[in-house]
Every structure is written in C-alpha cells, then in structure tokens.
C-alpha cells in the first residue's frame, strides 16, 4: 500500500536514515560528555567519538580530518568561509567573484561584504545554469582574493565545472570556495582532485541530522586560514568556537560514511526514477526542463508547466505530495525564483515551475503516483487557464497589454 | 500556509469555469492581471437585455488557489444581480468570505477589478459611458 504523503522535497531537507539515528542516541544519554573536557572519561569518550566522525566526514570528500571544521550547517559555513577569507586576506585584496544563482547564504554574505567596503562581482549564468569560464577568468583582478561558486544548484541541480573553476583560480593565485551543500553525499566530491580550497556542506541534506555541518579548510598547497566569526574557547583550530555538538557530529559522520558506501548504487537507482518522472511529465504539452540536463545531480528535476501557476498546481496535490515551486506565491517575497530568472526564463515560466528532489527512500510506486497526480492537475488547471485557451487559439500573448500590478 | 476550507472547496470544485461568446453584445469580458505577476483572471458576464440582470457568469484563471477561489466566488455572486448591484461588490467581502490571509488580498482585488472590467466592457458595447473607478495600488 502506498503511504501518503510522499516526500519529494529532498533539496530542502532529507529524512534522517534510521542507521544514523541509532548511532546518535547514546550520545544524548550515556555518552553526554563535552569533547573539550580533557581530564575525565566522559570527555575522552566524546572526543573519541568526534575524532572518529571527523575521519568519516573527511573520507567522504578526500580530505584530511584536520581540515574539517564543524559548523552548525551550510549557512554558517558560507558565512565563515567568505567573511573569514575576506578578513584574513585583507592585505591581499578585497574583491570576491561569485554567481547570481548562488544560495542566499552566499549572496547575502557577499552583500554584507560590499557594505563593509569590499567589492563583489556577480557572474551571470548561461541559459543552462552553468557559468561561463571565460567570464570568470576575465573578472579576476589583482585585488581578487576569492572565487565563490557553488558545486551544484539547489533549485535546478546543475553541477558547475568545479575542476575548471579551481584551475582558473589557482592559475591566478586566488582561493576557491564552493558551497557543496547539495552535492556532497550525492555525487563524488574530492577536494584534492577537484582542487577546492574551502567547501561547505551539511548533515541534513544527506540523511543526517539538522544543525550540523562542516567547512573544509585546506591545510596544504596552499595553507588556507579564515578569521573566526565567533569569539570563544578556540575550538576547531581556533576557527569556530563553541562546544561541539557531539550527537550531531556522530550522526553527521555516520551519514557521510553511509553516503560514501552507498552513493553509487543510490545514484543509479534514483536517477532512473528521476528520468522516469521527467520523461512522463514532459509528455504533457508545453512542459520544459529548466537547466542543463547533462551536468545535473541525479536526484533533481525542475520542470515548468506553461500556462499553469506553480502554487495553484501544488494545491492540487500538496496534501499528498510534498514539492516546492519557483512560484512567487510560495515565497515570502512575492518574487518568483531568482535562479530561474537568472537562466533567462520569463517570470511566467518561473511562476510555473516545480522542483522535484528524490532521495534514497523514494520508491517507484511513489513516482508513478506523482506522475498521475501532477498530470491530472496540470490538465485540470489548464482547462481553467485563460492563458491556455489563448495559446490554443493561437493568440500572441506578447501583444496583449497586460495590466501589471 | 494552510488554506481555508472555502478556498479549498472552490479550488477543488470551481463554479462556473468556462467561456462565453465575447463577441456577443450582451456579454461583458474583463481580463486582468499579467502572466509575469503569476495571476491572470478572465471574468465574463452575460446580461439579460430586458431585465438588466446578470443571468450567467464564467471565469478562467491562471493563478494560485486563492486567485481561483476568488474568481469562482465572484461568478457565484454575480449571477442574479443587476449590473448596478454588481458594481458594488467589494474585494473585502471576498476576503471575508474566503478567509484570505493578508498576503492573498491581492487575489480579491484582482477579482473586483475583473468584475469592473467586465461591466465596463458590457457598458461600452451597449453605448453606455464607462464607469471610472479609483486607481488602486495592488
């Protein structure tokens, strides 16, 4: 029997794997020690658990455990990396390069940098969501200290050419930071092979707990340092003070280990389901995939259903299927997705988009149900849509004088 | 955000979806909103020439659930009213009836605008002066 509701919003957060929960529980109760307590067994136990988890996390991304700084999550990691580099390398320059499809945690941190006197270049992306490497290289100046480009996008799943970006940054002696929140645990990420200097990622997007993440900070070739953004006991090599969240760290470590061991088989299975979903939904007229489909996370699909509004569409099934939309109506700002607009999509298409994020726990039965529900709702709403009627009658909607409000 | 039961009901079982013959003299059509804004409403009234009563009303809406519900409710209210009575329909009545949250008030405004646009279209077709409504900021 199909159990409802179905969760397909895994880019927002993933459910925690039961094996992760099992690993965590003892660290709330019997092993509750503070990892910084150096003089009794409770502290030693906690420290040992943290060390073990740090190895599990490091191993997933090909890093040395000493290069892992535990944070509260990706937003903190974005802040620490960008502000930390900006402050640490102030004598070298004050210019940062990023892209306009980054997560708000990066964009708003960059806005903060601008307010405090720094300079930021926001690269436009191409129609498929990828940055133009020539534009990136052209944007580098003598004052550039950091390139901050995400590994994979949270709305469309597009994977940036990370290796090439890293090579360009290295060539010009600029540090490269990547927000890999959506990529780590889903696709192979290797900080050495990819040439990454700083990288943020988080537990709750990879079947781990919320409130725990990591910032990778390279120690060799070059040795990277960031200025701490929080003052205190000097934890995490002085870069991030605060008592370690031991249960979170244990869970994060376990989640990383599971991803390392199961990523390949998960990705193969999930991408098949994603492709089934996408192929079926694209059979509907006037349905389009947003973003590059070749360089894309295996579990993500973003589709616009023209002439149907996203929130109205979600309402048709959101009691039973959890999804998100690029429609303005689903956000607090009343602006449609800035990521989709950056691809050059008109506001109308941005309003008409749905984002699908599958997971380790998604089943074929769930996908079949989703295909049926969404197809039915799209057809029903199009019967109700004046735009669909105009489209069918061949009316040129660009010639209508719309009353913008 | 949770929707009110009335919004869900109108969304699930919309009343009066459809199209009237816009070239007919006794049909008034109002098309408001814009695709870029995420909502477009088309509301039509058919007026009985002898009595001046709205005998039918239809809508089609591109928009969120609240926009669909607002237009569905508007067509319900329009039927059986005289054109003059219809002019008096206020967006806040729609807000109240559907329990719309503040962020969705613009849907009700759009419905009121659609009613007025349909009435003016009807008046124009029948040689009557178009009514002037206050400009409002949505």
Plain-language structure description:
The complex is a heterodimer of chains A (405) and B (138). Chain A has 405 residues and is α/β, with parallel strands linked by helices. Chain A is built from 13 helices and 13 strands. Chain A folds into 2 domains: 6-11 and 263-385, Aspartate Aminotransferase, domain 1; 18-259, Type I PLP-dependent aspartate aminotransferase-like (Major domain) (Aspartate Aminotransferase, domain 2). Helices cover 39% and strands 13% of the residues of chain A. In chain A, strand 5 (144-148), helix 6 (162-171) and strand 6 form a beta-alpha-beta unit. In chain A, helix 1 (18-24) runs antiparallel to helix 8, helix 2 (41-61) packs parallel to helix 8 (246-281) and helix 3 (74-88) packs parallel to helix 4. Chain A is globular and about 75 Å long. The mean pLDDT of chain A is 95. Chain B has one domain (5-20, 27-125): Sufe protein. Chain: A (Alpha-Beta Complex), CATH 3.90.1010. In chain B, strands 1-2-3 form a 3-stranded antiparallel sheet. The chains are: A alpha/beta (405), B alpha+beta (138). The interface between A and B is medium-sized, with 30 and 32 residues.
Overall mean pLDDT of chain A stands at 95
Radius of gyration of chain A: 22 Å
SS element count, helices of chain A = 13
Q: So what's the CATH class of the largest domain in chain A?
A: Alpha Beta
Q: Supply the helix-strand structural class of chain B.
A: alpha+beta
Order of helices and strands of chain A: EHHEHEHEHEHEHEEHEEHEEHHEHH
Computed over alpha carbons, the radius of gyration of chain B is 14 Å
Total count of domains of chain A: 2
Q: How many helices of chain B does DSSP assign?
A: 5
**Beta-strand content estimate of chain B:** 15-25%
Proportion in β-strands of chain A:
5-15%
Distance between the ends of chain B: 21 Å
